Amino acid sequence: MKVLSGLAFFLTFLSPNVWAQWDLSNDSSRLNFVTVKSLKIGEVHRFEHLTGSISDTGQVTLNIDLNSVETNIGIRNERIKKQLFETDNFLQATASGFINVNKVARLEVGDTYTESVQLTLSFHGIAHKVTNDVQVTKLKDDKLSVTSLMPLVINASNYGLTEGVEKLRALAGLPSISDAVPVTFSLIFNP
User: Fold this and answer.
1) Nearest alpha-carbon partner for 15 in 101, 129, 79
2) Listed residue (147, 130, 145, 165) closest to 36, CA to CA
3) For the segment 135-181, what is each residue's pLDDT rounded down to a tens digit?
4) For the segment 117-138, what is each residue's pLDDT rounded down to a tens digit?
5) What is the DSSP letter of 26?
6) Cα angle vertex 97, ends 106, 24, to 5°?
7) Strand (E) or helix (H) holding 167
8) For the chain, does the N or the C end have fewer beta carbons within 10 angstroms?
9) Cβ atoms of residues 67 and 145 within 8 Å
10) Between vectors from CA 85 to CA 84 and to CA 91, what angle results, nearest 5°?
11) Residue 114, CA atoms < 13 Å, CB-side half-sphere
């Protein structure tokens, strides 16, 4: 009887989120990137279709539909898809890593914590490890917010995209387009 009472007492302190899975809310999430052309003109772009989840073990997966790139200029969207991303062969990019579910389980609504997360970014057929500091916040209705604390800089050369950047530069008649692209994200996950 003491063992059962002790077990029941212990279980009352565990959040049900320890065993939960969260799914990404595309409508509430953002993944933005900045391009710099002609050495001085910066523009913010985004991806409109994201999917992903956080498993009960803390495995975070984010899938980025490369055909959903939005630069607010239709011809540029098409050029990026065809010349840079080559979406006929590479439909999506993925990022995966882990967050600390034990810390998540202890969060009350409005609580937050930060951690450095190592991610595997698979993009254009090439995978690299990258590290980013994120802030995890517990929202009402057991939702989670995972937000980058600083931009993650993606270098075109690491993913075999240098030739595509050069094609875009030539098509647009620009003197330069930066190979380094800062990326930020604000992701909302629903239980």
Assistant:
1) 101
2) 165
3) 999 999 999 999 999 999 999 999 999 999 999 999 999 999 999 99
4) 999 999 999 999 999 999 999 9
5) G
6) 70
7) helix 162-172
8) N
9) no
10) 165
11) 6
Residues of the chain with pLDDT > 70, as a percent, come to 90
Confidence category of residue 5, pLDDT binned at 50, 70, 90: very low
Instruction: Kindly report each contact of residues 172-176 with a partner whose C-beta sits within 8 Å and lies 24 or more positions away, as own/partner.
Output: 172/37, 172/76, 172/79, 174/37, 174/38, 175/38, 175/39, 176/37, 176/38, 176/39
- Among the four given CATH numbers 3.40.50.720, 3.60.10.10, 3.60.40.10, 2.40.128.110, the one describing domain 2-190: 2.40.128.110
What Å distances lie between residue 64 and 98, 132, 138, 153, 163, CA to CA?
Answer: 18, 17, 24, 16, 22
pTM, full prediction: 0.87
Are 121 and 93 within 8 A, CB to CB?
A: yes
Query: Which region, left, alpha or beta, applies to residue 93 given φ > 0 means left and ψ of -120 to 50 means alpha?
Result: beta
Q: Which two tokens stand for residue 2?
A: 């003491």
What would the pLDDT profile of 67-95 be if each residue is shown by its tens digit?
A: 999 999 999 999 999 999 999 999 999 99
